[in-house]
Amino acid sequence: MSLLTLPSPAKLNLFLHITGKRADGYHNLQSVFQLIDLYDYLSFDIAYADLSINQLDEVASSDNLIIKAARLLQHHTGYRGGCRIELQKNIPIGGGVGGGSSNAATTLLALNSLWQTGLTLAELAGLGIQLGADVPIFILGKNAWAEGVGEQLVAVDLPQIDYIVLKPDCFISTKQLFSQESLTRNTPETTFAAYQQNPTQCGNNFEAIAQKLYPEVAQALAYLNQFGQARLTGTGACVFLPVQPEQDITAIMQNAPCQSYFCHGLQRSPVHEQLGLV
């Protein structure tokens, strides 16, 4: 097989706590990752000698995580072939829903299969963390309890829930959020069992700061909070609301102040199902 097309799913952080600053300058966190059925699509054709990709206007080639992932796999394994990659972009860029990280993970999984480089999921996750803290969750391909910088993952079962996701019309600087003196960096550690008992008590440490610095985020959260308890995902800009079947989902989405998406929670990544990974 030389040609393969795969979906590349997004994720939500159902909560996000910063529990301390590390000696290396990074922060320890706790979170629950929920995969959702908002997909980019990646097509891979290895009947090419070089690596190439259709270019997005919003992403410089030097910053393209897809090419970085492919080159990292080449360097790690010594593989000398190439691939032509086509990306169909549906996941909003800069939304905190992991689009770039998912693309990188899908690339590692796909090329590991097509190039027959034989790495395990654990080995691929070890490569993925070099590209971004969210890449390993997409290598795992299951919902997970996360600790460390997001790379310490334990697969968990989550209830089947649907979500409305809004993408405010702004681009949030993660670096700017982390630089704010008012950011809470010492939230007491919790457990997945405690989260399950009372999930509404777990929030997102970036949410108040994002609302203060970006009025579009505050507007989107205020809108969704009319219908339940909304949250910021990751460092934003996307916000989300768990919804129930009896709610008028169409009306909520049509009257939203910005781009809206209706998403189902996934139990497993379709990438892994398609590639036959366990």
TrEMBL record:
UniProt enzyme class: transferase
GO molecular function list: 4-(cytidine 5'-diphospho)-2-C-methyl-D-erythritol kinase activity; ATP binding
Xref: Gene3D superfamilies: 3.30.230.10, GHMP kinase, C-terminal domain (3.30.70.890)
Reactions mediated catalytically: 4-CDP-2-C-methyl-D-erythritol + ATP = 4-CDP-2-C-methyl-D-erythritol 2-phosphate + ADP + H(+)
Name recorded for this polypeptide: 4-diphosphocytidyl-2-C-methyl-D-erythritol kinase
NCBIfam families listed in its UniProt record: ispE
SUPFAM superfamilies the UniProt entry points to: GHMP Kinase, C-terminal domain, Ribosomal protein S5 domain 2-like
Keyword Nucleotide-binding recorded: yes
Residue positions of the active site: K11, D134
Biological-process GO terms, alphabetical: isopentenyl diphosphate biosynthetic process, methylerythritol 4-phosphate pathway; terpenoid biosynthetic process
Domain GHMP kinase N-terminal as annotated: residue spans: 64-142
Described purpose of this protein according to its UniProt entry: Catalyzes the phosphorylation of the position 2 hydroxy group of 4-diphosphocytidyl-2C-methyl-D-erythritol.
Species name: Alkanindiges hydrocarboniclasticus
Pathways per UniProt: Isoprenoid biosynthesis; isopentenyl diphosphate biosynthesis via DXP pathway; isopentenyl diphosphate from 1-deoxy-D-xylulose 5-phosphate: step 3/6
